[in-house]
Amino acid sequence: MAAAQRALDVEHAYPGQCPLCGQHVTFSCANDEFRARLSCPSCFELYKGSLVRERALFHALNLHAIDLGALDVHEIAPAAFAGATAKVAKSVRSFVFSNFWPDRPLGDIVNGVHNENAERQSFADGAFDLVVSLDLMEHVNHPDRVCAEVHRTLRPGGHYVFTAPTYPHIMKSRRAALYTDSGVVHYEEPEYHGNPISDQGALVTWRYGYDFPELIRSWADFDVTVLRFDAPGLGLMGYFTETYVCAKPGVGA
Fold first, then answer.
1. Which domain holds residue 213?
2. Domain tally for the chain?
3. Which ranges of 80-211 would DSSP assign to H, the alpha helix?
4. Cα separation of 93 and 4, whole Å?
5. What pLDDT is recorded for position 101?
6. pTM: predicted TM-score of the whole model, two decimal places
7. SS3 content of the chain, % helix, strand, coil (to 5)
8. What CA–CA distances, in Å, run from 21 to 10, 101, 212?
9. Rounded CA gap, 245 and 224, in Å?
10. Residue 48 pLDDT
């Protein structure tokens, strides 16, 4: 009866291999909201689940032969210690993750999490081999400063791999909101996404378009690759699957 009920609850089912957990599974979703709901049963058991963007991150790492085992890694603003965050932490040489509490000193450790402003980090130059973030860049006030700081904290040959919603109908990226000392200036209708450290949500400050890779290159000395996926057998479907692989020139550590 339970199995029959589960079958009724699943509208879409796709057999394949998960890029995150590596297991042969059947990805499933009860509706067409693939980005938020297409699930991997093995990731659910091992890592409390995984979202499409988390699997996209790991597929990008696999495609670029980025071997996590010997790397020092920083993840900026993870939503929870689950999914890709849990897998990365388990797989690498050393792992730190950060969020930002404006009322606490930079560099403080809050419940095991580094307090860092992504635009003005306290980490030393060349501290990491890999920096990752998931749907962060559309919420930062100054993405140019984030890219510059990530570049500074990466070793030569290191990578910044991240996901960010990219709109196919927008040719030139545009600012949606700006934080100022006097408050928030809205240029478009306010939109908020989930925020792991605030019930108020995370305001969308930027909407990125086709020129985003060019912008990244203008902000920091990165070689930029953009990946977009539609691969049911990898659990990668739906809108906003764009994943950016930014390589810092030089010889890796």
1. 67-247
2. 1
3. 83-91, 143-153
4. 44
5. 87
6. 0.92
7. 25, 30, 45
8. 21, 32, 30
9. 6
10. 94
On whether residue 192 sits in a domain, the answer given is yes
Coil, strand or helix at 137: coil
Tokens of 3: 């199995």
Q: How far apart are the first and last CA of the chain?
A: 55
The first and second tokens of residue 26, run together, are 């059947």
Which residue is associated with the tokens 């796709």? 14
Mean pLDDT of 34-53: 95
Three-class secondary structure of residue 138 per DSSP = coil
DSSP tag of 68: G
Amino acid at 121: Q
Token duo for residue 224: 């930029």
* CATH code (residue 124): 3.40.50.150
Tell me how many degrees the CA angle 82-138-39 measures, rounded to the nearest 5.
Answer: 35
More confident residue, 36 or 246: 246
DSSP character at residue 120: B
